Amino acid sequence: MRQPLRPVIPLQIAATRDDYGDMTGVSRSAQCACGQVQLDCSGEPAKVSVCHCLECQRRTGSVFGVAVFFARSQVRISGETRVYSRGSDGGFSVTHHFCPECGTTAFWYPSRKPKMVAIGLGCFANPKFQPPHQQVYEHHRHAWVTLTL
Q1: Architecture of domain 24-140
Q2: 23-32, 45-54, 119-128: lowest mean pLDDT where?
């Protein structure tokens, strides 16, 4: 039997500026599609990265993934998750945490960056979020994808 959907919790973004430039006192909230997994992030991310690797394509069901990297100490996580670990194109393991209700991969821990947590950019649901700093695994980029960073 399918369980009823939980209400979606509104996202909250607080900052001293409206654009995606340098901001002080920033806090951002991210969540899975059903709102059961919540991530509260303080401060600026260390990096925003587009990944064209085949594993990110499979994880997202799209042609690339976008990860927002924060220090683990900057992120408070609540809600139940399930875990899936896999190797990466670079040979390091990645541990994904996804919502058992809606299936959203909300965040992951790349063993290559043990002090960081990566959060899916789409979980912030904020079109004004700062753009990516870099692209990686471009040799797997679909020929029709063009990104200007």
Answers
A1: Beta Complex (2.170)
A2: 23-32
> What SS3 class is residue 75?
strand
Residue spans per domain, the chain:
24-140
Half-sphere exposure of 147 (CA within 13 A, CB side): 18
Q: What are phi and psi of 103, to 5 degrees?
A: 85, 0
Distance, CA of 19 to CA of 32 (rounded, Å): 24
**Tokens coding 112:** 């290559």
pLDDT band at 41 (very low <50, low <70, confident <90, very high): very high
Q: Which two tokens stand for residue 71?
A: 């220090």
Q: Compute the half-sphere exposure of residue 97: CA atoms within 13 Å on the CB side of its CA.
A: 20
Residue 25 confidence (pLDDT) = 67
In this prediction the pTM is 0.79
Structural element, H or E, at residue 135: strand 134-136
